[in-house]
Amino acid sequence: MSTSTSTQLQDTAVIVTGAGSGIGRATARAAAEQGARVLAVGRRRDALVATARDHPGIVCHPADITAPDAPDTIAQAARTRLGRIDALVNNAAILGGGPLGTATRTQAIRLFDTNLIAPMLLSQAVVGDLESTGGVIANVSTSVGQRGWAGSGPYAASKVALESLTRSWAVELAPRGVRVVAVAPGAIATPIGANNGMSPQRREEIRAWQVARTPMGRRGRPEEVAWALCALIGRQASFVTGAVLPVDGGAVVG
């Protein structure tokens, strides 16, 4: 467990989707270490149990966020198990892309359902709770959406749309006391490629391509994105809304 002494999330109640690995796991743990109670949401119970190990502030809620009843059941689970909802971190996502002409309707629907529609409907399900607590929605986008990378179009498009919602919701919800923010990670060392069925050789090719295009010369760590998310949902960021924070080692500006 981290030795961080920050308590800016003390006694806050946070939902983190995609919490079974990578950025979601790191964020759930970092928030718990800062005093939050966390509902860790993901499809795989065993992965969630691993996330919660040695972190008593994390409770597991296995769920497919694209299921028709998921928004309401996740929201109700948070109310019951956490007592309130102060923040929602929309992190769960899947990869998808390829050159124009290679996508199928089924693949495209699954991609946008997971990366855009599910976060939208879950945010809708908890916005009343967030209004009552002066809470925040934090969306996880991608730096890939800030530039044109061949083959990344569908995935990037789903994430850019989430950024657009971030800005629109920030304006719409500010009068209701709800903040909306986002982070845009670059190349981060997570298992998302393996989880989406990429071969080891293809993952290594992508890793080399990413590092070559990152001015800092390395991939980021999930914990570095978790730091940004926890800072943005924390009390000290109370005047920050509509912001999309790059966490990409300079990839967008390089």
TrEMBL record:
Source organism, top-level taxon: Bacteria
Name of protein: SDR family oxidoreductase
InterPro entries: NAD(P)-bd_dom_sf, SDR_fam
Organism: Nocardiopsis rhodophaea
